[in-house]
Design brief:
8 strands, single chain, 14% strand, Rossmann fold, alpha/beta, two-stranded antiparallel sheet
């Protein structure tokens, strides 16, 4: 553990991202994000059976239909997320990730996702050296309100955990509606208009395994838009990665 992490923990003692309990063990090398009780509940969320394949959610790689239509045939995730259950550990983690920047939580989630990404790279016959992480930036309005970009933080933590080079950022245009206030078709149009690939950043994507990172996938409009914008650069594979997928409305 670096001296910087140790100092940060001493000045700002880590608290559980779910219940707020003060966490001990400032000298631990592992990220400090959840207390023991919430870790058990978090593992339970990950092991809940997926509605589409019957396997534990964390083992399911099936993408939501929209991103599958845009060339993303794999979606790695940790859990399902039901916004109507704000007191669940999964919901609290998502809210914390979105609303308050936490290097410990980002590092914890990156460590949870990294083995899944490595397994997928092996299945595809790819290597970390031939992989590129890409994230879709938060809107300028959200950046002003929150002061940070949760997807950038997660993507950066993943790059560090996997030993992959600097992530590639899409350009976020101004305008467009707020995604959560839109229907599926409107979400897709809004997302497609909101993002743009930067040629000088994407010129080296040809033949690479591109890993698209998002925090929560609802309809898949954001990942679909990003995939559509980078496809002209001819990546070899496109893999989607997120912390959680929305629980389908019929199961709420």
């Amino acid at each position: 553990m670096s001296a910087g992490v140790m100092l940060r923990r001493l000045i700002f003692p880590p608290r559980c991202a779910s219940c707020g309990t003060l966490l001990g063990g400032a000298d631990q090398t592992a990220p400090l994000a959840l207390c023991r009780a919430c870790t058990v509940k978090w593992d339970s969320h990950k092991n809940a059976l997926c509605h589409c394949c019957g396997y534990p959610v964390a083992d399911c790689t099936r993408p939501v239909p929209m991103i599958a239509r845009h060339g993303v045939d794999t979606l790695l995730k940790l859990t399902e997320y039901d916004p109507q259950k704000p007191q669940s550990v999964a919901s609290r983690i998502i809210f914390k990730l979105k609303d308050k920047e936490s290097a410990e939580l980002q590092a914890f989630l990156a460590r949870e996702l990294a083995p899944k990404i490595e397994e997928q790279l092996v299945r595809l016959g790819q290597t970390r050296e031939n992989s590129v992480l890409v994230w879709a930036p938060r809107s300028k309005k959200s950046l002003r309100e929150r002061g940070f970009d949760q997807s950038k933080g997660l993507c950066t933590a993943l790059a560090h955990e996997l030993g992959i080079g600097k992530p590639v950022q899409m350009v976020r245009r101004t305008g467009g509606g707020v995604q959560k206030m839109l229907g599926q078709e409107q979400r897709a149009k809004n997302a497609y208009a909101a993002f743009e690939a930067v040629p000088k950043h994407c010129a080296d994507l040809k033949g690479k395994c591109v890993i698209l990172v998002d925090d929560v996938v609802t309809t898949g409009s954001t990942l679909s838009a990003v995939a559509a914008k980078i496809k002209p650069y001819k990546p070899g594979h496109i893999v989607g990665v997120c912390i959680a997928v929305d629980v389908p409305p019929e199961r709420r």
